[in-house]
Design goal:
Number of domains: 1
Structural class: mainly alpha
Largest sheet: none
Oligomer: single chain
Shape: elongated
Strand content: under 5%
């Protein structure tokens, strides 16, 4: 087992031990950060319908 495998294994164990609520809270925070950092992500979601018409 090399170091990368060991690291990913430790991360997987930590994730497995996390309560579901903590995971969902982290995911929500991450998503909010992503939306703040990338306004284009939300723009892309709303734009396609108008693009499809052409």
């Amino acid at each position: 087992m090399n170091r990368l495998d060991l690291l990913s294994f430790k991360v997987a164990m930590c994730v497995a031990n996390f309560p579901q609520s903590v995971m969902s809270r982290m995911a929500r925070v991450f998503r909010e950060c992503l939306i703040e950092v990338h306004p284009t992500v939300t723009a892309i979601k709303t734009v396609p319908p108008t693009l499809d018409k052409k």
